[in-house]
Each structure stands twice: as C-alpha cells, then as structure tokens.
Design a protein that fits this description.
heterodimer; A: about 110 residues; mainly beta; 7-stranded mixed β-sheet; 4-stranded antiparallel β-sheet; about 0% helix; B: about 110 residues; 6-stranded mixed β-sheet; globular
C-alpha cells in the first residue's frame, strides 16, 4: 500500500450504532487530520494530531471521538450519530507543523446515517 | 478570520477550451495559497501552490499567480482535456498552525 488509505470506503449506519473509521498513512508523516466534506460546503477540519497528540479540535460534537495510537494510524469512532452527519470523511497527513506543507489525502469514507 | 471565495460552478467546457476558475481570499498576514483537485472517487491532491506575492504556481498545464493587490489566486489552463474533469478547491494557510481554509469547490466537466 502507498499513500493514505481509508477503510471502509462506504458505511451505512443507524443512529444507535457504533462504528469506527480507519486511516493509515504510509508516507512517514508526523501529522494526521480528519476532515468532513458535505455537499455545497467547504471542507471542515475536525481534528488534527501531531506526533500522536491532539493539537486542534474544531468544536466537533462528542459523538465523534478520534484516536491516534501511533503516527501511522488514525481512527474516528462514531456513536449515536444524526442524519446530518452523513458526509464524506477524509483523512490526510503531512510532514511538519507548517500548514504550507502539502497535505496528502485518502479517498474518503462515504458515511450515510439512517 | 481567514476565508476563501471561489466561483461555484459547475463549469462545463469543450475539450481544448480555455479555463479560468476565480478565487479570492481574506486573510491576515501573508498566507500561502493552494489549488487542490479531487477526481471522482478519490481524495484531494495538491495541484499547485504559491507561498508569496507574485509567485506563480504551475503543474500539468495549470497556472495560478498570487496577486496580493487583488487578494486573488485564479486558476487557468490554456487547453483543457476530458481528463481534467474534477472538483477544484482553492485553499490558504495562515502560517505555522495546521489549518488549511478551503473554498467550496468548483466542479469542472470537460466534454469531448
């Protein structure tokens, strides 16, 4: 595998389910990100991890819970979601603290909440 | 705060037509500017970037010039191909923090 991979690619869940999204980067980067991509809206940064420590949380509801066990893996745990949480969830990684560095994105997980 | 405004589209062109996608920004300080592209079913990829005023970023025939006086970073290509069909995102970064601010994206469709 190369680049940034995400699993699953598609997920359908009910509002009472608990599920997790997985991201893995094979680039040796030290920062990882979760973004939410909704139709007609700009990408929303949800979480940023640097060296496995969360450095930014843009006021995301607690029903989204990130986990970064090491610099190559990032998870997004989901529970009691709402239909408006349906979106494409993108993972990205980069090298270094500087946002001028290129971010490399995975293909995303298309989430549908029923 | 920082913000990016880009033409909403969708934009539909014939092959070999000239492309312009407008992007303007609001930011404090001296941001870096980016264009990312998202092909169907894929994540975003960096297309080009410029880190200071009057810099020109270029890649795959696309160009954009960082214009501080007009706070713009318009994307241009002289002759588009069907394979350029994708969503294009303008973005800016504010320096040492992690945050990229994205525009809403512009869908480009190129017909043969």
């Amino acid at each position: 595998e190369t680049g940034v991979t995400q699993t699953p690619r598609h997920l359908v869940m009910g509002m009472t389910n608990k599920k997790s999204l997985k991201c893995e980067q094979h680039l040796g980067h030290n920062a990882m990100y979760w973004y939410k991509q909704s139709a007609k809206k700009p990408l929303e940064l949800m979480f940023v991890y640097s060296l496995e420590e969360r450095v930014e949380n843009n006021s995301v509801p607690s029903r989204f819970s990130p986990e970064c066990p090491n610099s190559s893996h990032l998870f997004l745990h989901l529970h009691t979601l709402q239909p408006e949480d349906s979106a494409l969830y993108l993972c990205a990684s980069s090298q270094g603290r500087d946002s001028r560095n290129e971010q490399f994105f995975g293909p995303g997980t298309r989430l549908t909440v029923l | 705060g920082n913000s990016v405004t880009q033409m909403e589209g969708p934009v539909t062109l014939s092959e070999e037509a000239f492309l312009t996608i407008n992007c303007t920004y609001t930011a404090t300080g001296y941001p870096s500017l980016f264009w990312y592209v998202q092909y169907p079913g894929e994540g975003l990829q960096l297309l080009l970037k410029a880190t200071k005023a009057d810099d020109k970023g270029s890649n795959k025939g696309f160009e954009a010039t960082y214009r501080k006086e007009t706070t713009s970073f318009h994307l241009e290509k002289g002759s588009v191909q069907v394979s350029d069909s994708a969503v294009y995102f303008c973005a800016l970064s504010g320096g040492s923090n992690y945050k990229l601010t994205f525009g809403k994206g512009t869908l480009l469709t190129v017909n043969p």
